[in-house]
Amino acid sequence: MCRLYGFRATEPTKVECTLVHAQNALIIQSSRDRSGTSHLNGWGLATYRNHQPQIERQARAAVEDADFRRVAGRAYSNTVLAHVRRATVGRVALENTHPFCHGPWAFVHNGTLPRFDELRPKMLAAMTPEHRTAIRGETDSEHIFHMLLSLYEATPAGSLPEILHIGLGRLVAWCREIDPAARIGLNVLLTDGGRLAGARWGRTLHYVERAGVHDCEICGFPHIRHDSRQTYRAVVIASEPISNEAWREIPERSIFAVLPEIALQIDPQPLMETAAYDDPILIKPEA
After folding, report:
1. So what's the pLDDT on residue 256?
2. How many CB atoms lie within 10 A of CB 274?
3. Confidence tier at 225 by pLDDT (50, 70, 90)
4. Which of 20, 36, 139, 192 is the most exposed, fewest CB within 10 Å of its CB?
């Protein structure tokens, strides 16, 4: 298990309160989430500047690390991903700490792929050579990331929700082939700084939409330098409700995306476990 956070807004926004000071801020979930579970094996934060991700990570508990508060305190961006890790696959190490990054892309995952050692060869076969060699750690999460990017690059006309439907559906089908009774966790968020999409499968996930400029319920101040010519909107996605706002649950087995006008669109077609597609995505492993 892990806990993740995603944010997308029309204007750069300070996110310190939801990460550090809110009633159920991410730093609190690091110590103890609503189920009583701790997530002490690392933290990471991705913001965007000039369309490039700025990643800061540590293989330490957020709740015990002053660097988390420092990094969260200066995070100011249209797009943010954050994560606190409870290690299941892979050592507690910096290279296994989310968010994972490649080019403009950043990715976080909450959940576990069962029997990953048996699943991994299938995933590697579905990656381009570039993405196979880009993997630095041992986690199922980083392998999911590079498999999805390989699929995206092989499907130039595909949208992010379509890529998630195909890639995650294939992963679930492979997991079922290996162990039909296994519990799969595939909550993911994927962004290039301008687009943000994700999925819920097997773990809790919630969202809140914000419209207009309001004083923060925690600190009493707005978190943006607002351009009055724009209408401010934001979407926040998190494993658990963070504040006293009107959070809603994202349905199980959903694919979703933040639209350009900054509203969450949940695909009405549920994520299905499907291994076969009429597309040339699977890539032969190198000899």
Report:
1. 98
2. 13
3. confident
4. 36
